[in-house]
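We give its fold:
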Amino acid sequence: MNAYQPQPEASRHILESVLRASEQLTALPAFPDFDAELLQQVLEEAGKFVGEVVAPLNRSGDETGAQWAAGVVTMPPGFRESYQAFWQAGWPSLAGAVDDGGQGLPTVVEAVLHEMLNAANHGWTMAPGLLHGAAECIRHHASAELKDRYLPRLVSGEWLATMCLTEPHAGSDLGLVRTKATPLADGRFALSGTKIFISGGEHDLTDNIVHLVLARLPDAPPGPRGLSLFLVPKFEPDGTRSAVHCERIEEKMGIHASPTCVMRFDEATASLVGEPGKGLNAMFVMMNAARLLVGLQGIGLLDAAWQKANAYAQERRQMRAPGSASKAGQADVIALHPAIQRILATQRAWIDAGRVIAYRTAIELDLQKHHPDATRRETAARWCSLVTPVLKSAWTDQAFTGASACLQVFGGHGYVREWGIEQIVRDARVAMIYEGTNEIQAIDLLVRKVLPDGGTALSALLTELATELGDSPEAERTRQAMTRFAQFTTEHLLAATRAPGASPELPFWLADDYLRALAMLLMAWAWSRVAAAPQASGPRWTDAHTGFWRWVWPEFDTRMAIMGTSLNAA
């Protein structure tokens, strides 16, 4: 009951039967050797490694936690050995560029791996979670010397990386960053300042840690445009330890096995990554990749919670279920009770729709990068820009609320540690906060991406999705909802925000409801695709399909009503 079991066949069904991933990706020049057979093989082997090596460490890692003493962090028993096996088996390098020592596989393969890893052991997976983003950041922005020195070892996973943004006084507002970088005679810099909430800032999993740090040059202007990005290794090439110190690790609600560090830089020798004053441009390469992975964290954690609750519901007997054919006085398993069926089917609806959307996003990332047609690259970029904040926000929200609902299936047993479900609730909560809070994701979607172009990109996306729907009554309902949502954006929301005397706060009040309504539309599109795919039968798919339309979809009308009321009040 305490160990998550990967189900690679379910992921493969969505990739191949629903999204036709191999067909799309093999057509790209970057993946000439990729096919459905290779995809299946990688997913099966990933499932074995995750289930046999990583998942068994989840509970012990939570109970022991990362330990700090005199600036040194020791990871829970088994973590170093399992991580060393992980990178030596080549798992971190799946989607890395071949020129950098990677295997050159599509991004979606790495995405499915990280979904499994997070479901199995969220704390453990925090360590390699930033590897791909850090490697991409260095690959695109660092000097040739830095690339030669660090890129192969990050791509392989031999070394791990951090993203050092937050400071005690500066959370999401990076323009307040005070860490200073003073030029040195040899062209490098002396970095001084304190960063907080640094995941994996210190540990014993690898022999070196590469810190990517936002800091300010002496002549830099105030605000975010004055920030530059720097690289500081834990150990210099000559073996000298950098002047980087872990002052403590945080006592947290969850992910106890992941050390969340306070890092102090005492004139640490640093190298500039990219151009001065363009640190955020380089860092966003890392952050955007991380946001997709955080959305996958939500999906994976929700799946882990569902697995536990579903297994328990099939065994636990309590009273006679309404409409049951059992004999009077004979208890039924609680899986037969409508209240439990509703909980389980609702979470399953979120999990499988989330997979369709997340896997499609990963595929679009490769189409954006590698497709020979410029128009198709633009379409892919539009998808990633609009869908990523929805995926990160809506599915991490549901990971927490859905895991809490799954805990309810256990009754009092869920509140005690024996069954492991309470750990998922605690672990899932942080995903709503980091890599840009969910409120910031909603603002990013509406205020920064939809309103500036008058809803043009969003309307184009919905039009494209409408053409992919089938002929079912649900598909027609979805088309009508998409039209309604697009018209609300272009005819009502824009007019209200641009009217004389309109409050500049209005779109910020609406942002959360707007993102949730779009999430419902994306889920409706996803379930239309799943229902139309071959072999979409059996209790797993039919119950979740019914669960979406019966218990999830009504939220769309609720969110639209809330936004309409807000506009009328304004």
